[in-house]
Amino acid sequence: MDIIKTKIPGCYEIHKIVRKDTRGRLVKTFSEKTFQEMALHRNFPEVYYSVSNKNVLRGLHFQIPSQHHVKLVACLQGSILDAVVDLRIESPTYGENILVELNPDKANMLYIPAGCAHGFYSLTENTIFLNKTSTGYSQKHDRGIHWDSCGIDWPTNKPIVSEKDKHLIDFASYNSPFRYQEAI
Fold it and tell me: Superkingdom of the source (predicted)?
């Protein structure tokens, strides 16, 4: 696996190993050994997937301490623009975002550290998005910030969003509980 640093400390774009032959292809989505060598989190007790129509935007979501989590995300079908916003106070990239296209042809995924908000925009119909988390879902700890309050260059200003996501707090009004730790 190729693990590439993004501008957000602790956030990596990972290009997976792909084996192709006449039958199709096989993609290795996780290697505990590689993650251990890179000092990345390796235990993901909950795995989710969603199916989205074109122009659906989900996010920007995260969980607060004590149930904050690392995420490992990929697009298994279709194509998405995946967004990460650094919410860690004192981080050199606090408030900044990255936008990465994920799709099965690129065979890439994102490793997102705790303390970052995450969301994605579906570029195609029937997009299948995979989300592995280092902690289980906790409604009590579930939070989000409004999708258009962080300066993300989304492809539209009129995406399809859930009622919940329409009413999330703006980034400027959010009082982050996350602190940056240099040893990420």
Answer: Bacteria
